[in-house]
Amino acid sequence: MARRLRREWLPLGLFLALALVPVLAPLGPQSFILSLMTRIVVVALAALSLDLLIGKGGLVSFGHAACLGIGAYAVGILSAEGVTDGGAHLAVAIAAAAFFALATGAVAMRTDGVHFIMITLAFGQMLYFLATALSAYGGDDGITLPGRSTVLGRDVLASDTVLYLAALGALLAAYLLLRRIAASRFGRVLEGARDNPVRMEAIGFRPFRFRLAAYLISAMIAAVAGVLLANQTGFVSPATMAWQRSGELIFIVVLGGLGSLHGAILGAIAFILAEELLSHWSEHWRIVFGPLLILAVLFARGGLAGLLTKGARP
Predict the structure, then answer these.
(1) Nearest to 92 by CA among 104, 69, 75
(2) What is the pLDDT of residue 168?
(3) What is the CA radius of gyration of the chain?
């Protein structure tokens, strides 16, 4: 009972702490703190969308960053063409990610295991090389945005605080949506298909449809994260959708705790803060960072979310 209560209070405390960031940021280097925390929230949103696939569906996608890149390029390309409205950016990003997910998912969902990993990696790299070929929009060098997305013609996102709150609002909305999905009949079927797809087919469910729907939802949420990422960095490049970024997102999900949803947020916070601190400590920080992450995964059973709830007895 105590462990269950702790699991319930952990997400609430996490979001309350994130909501206090704009209040506490003026006590330090405000611009740096808000920029760093906005990056954490955006990456957490992308990881949260991937947790639906891996944690609930058992589908390890190595091309998930492609959807993140679709969202970022929707902002970059439309801004370069003079369309700065954030609503248009979101609409195009979500529609393009949905089309990509349906087209690739219809093929990928007919496989599983290592075959699913490799086919999602292949589709993700196809999109990556397509982005590098877009010479009109920077090609390999990427494209610098002329400004952040506007809202009803106003530059409200020009404020770092407003952008952070917008990203946090998107994260909260996605968390509540995915939590509702996980607790629904859809979520239970998705978990059943993960554990025993043959049995699910035997009782009348078609795992393909549920997995494809989860793939679609995950892609659209990742595209929203891409829109926010482009606004936060002010720059879009093919590196956003490279397989290395997909690998980072997978590691964040595992580090935070598979299937817990809020674990993806904890994983993003730990991953980026550790990366930031170690990069200031030494230029060879990756030599230390890699073993630290491996040790965290090996000894924190259930990820950081499981570690924080371990102290309470059931």
Answers:
(1) 75
(2) 95
(3) 19
